[in-house]
Amino acid sequence: KAGVTQTPRYxxxxxxxxxxxSCSPISGHRSVSWYQQTPGQGLQFLFEYFSETQRNKGNxxxxxxxxxxxxxxxxxxxxxxxxxxxxxxxxxxxxxLESTDTQYFGPGTRLTVL
Amino acid sequence: xxxxxxxxxxVSVSEGALVLLRCNYSSSVPPxxxxxxxxxxxxxxxxxKYTTGATLVKGINGFEAEFKKSExxxxxTKPSAHMSDAAEYFCAVSGRGSYIPTFGRGTSLIVHP
Lengths: 114, 113
Hints:
heterodimer, A: about 110 residues, mainly beta, 7-stranded mixed beta sheet, 4-stranded antiparallel beta sheet, about 0% helix, B: about 110 residues, 6-stranded mixed beta sheet, 5-stranded antiparallel beta sheet
């Protein structure tokens, strides 16, 4: 079974631009979560989608948004990029919303904002 | 509310020595606990998890962890370190009604030959 895939793997953008990242979950998984990982803040939860609905959201500004499609693929968008948005963005999928579920992570998208 | 504290941002051991990575948690509900490993330029991979039942949990690559409720701890151990164990390790907690896991800041394991 294929793992979680994220595209692109690397991105370089300039301040003020916007960016869209894509995540394809493991087949059959309906929950997709997004995390931002930085050396200073560690792993921070962005949001989670289940059945095309945002179920939970972390403490990030409205510039960060996402969506989920009927095939469970998810995208996240960051508008008006800032230097501090440079990070590794990780996507994770799980079968359901159960607390005991294991989250399976993709390799991440490394975003650099210049 | 839940939180995770990983003691020591870096742990250095010699190859063949015992590995001990510390994790303490705080949770207002019965916790579910996870250890993940991250190799450079990769995502996180689950090593092991505790949900219910036996408090000593065995995972992949020879790692194990013991849930100690009285100490609110879930330390990760491995009897003998290999060079390939060098990576970043993350402890995480979730709980009934709070299925979004909270991650610790991570511990970088360095293995010397």
